[in-house]
Design brief:
globular, two-stranded antiparallel sheet, seven-stranded antiparallel sheet, 9 strands
Length: 182
């Protein structure tokens, strides 16, 4: 006896092709959905110029990026960077006791002490945060204080120690060149 396949109706054949096409389309769209950055990377953090390539590892994919500057207390300035309404990164400038150092400032900032922390006299960083001391800055309203920079990454799964070191070095240098330093 010879095997003979059952004939499929045209409707069933079309339905099978449609279902297969939908399955492939769904699988392909699931691979790329939400993994693309549709916004342009910022070229500054609330007026402080930075290389966008240094920000890229810390900002998640999404449609929209926004930055909002806040001044929560005397002399502290924060730049809150959000992607699609979710806080991704905070860049800050704050005045701290002259006798304090980067370790003291890092101790009170979330995200800075996550992972391996590498520190020097004027710089402390990990994959998700950093503190830099801005040299040569004075301010008559903060006579016994030194200016520090702080970077904190809040976007999940975004960390890079080597890029954070370069970002905090550049950000701190740009703050030193800016109007906060006299």
């Amino acid at each position: 006896m010879k095997y003979a396949p059952l004939p499929l109706s045209t409707t069933l054949r079309r339905l099978a092709i449609l279902m297969a096409s939908l399955a492939v389309g769904t699988a392909l769209s699931g691979c790329s959905s939400g993994e693309e950055r549709e916004y342009s990377l910022p070229q500054s953090l609330c007026g402080v110029p930075v290389d966008p390539d240094l920000l890229a590892p810390f900002l998640p994919p999404g449609e929209r990026v926004s930055a909002r500057q806040t001044t929560p207390n005397g002399g502290t300035q924060r730049c809150n960077v959000s992607v699609d309404g979710e806080l991704a990164l905070v860049a800050g400038r704050l005045w701290w006791e002259k006798t304090g150092g980067v370790v003291d400032v890092a101790a009170v900032h979330a995200q800075v002490n996550k992972g391996d922390v590498i520190t020097g006299d004027d710089l402390l960083y990990s994959g998700t945060g950093a503190v830099g001391k801005v040299e040569g800055c004075t301010d008559s309203t903060h006579p016994d204080q030194a200016l520090f920079t702080v970077l904190q990454v809040f976007a999940s799964g975004r960390e890079s120690s080597s890029t954070m070191k370069r970002l905090v070095t550049e950000y701190t240098g740009q703050v030193q060149k800016g109007s906060d330093c006299t």
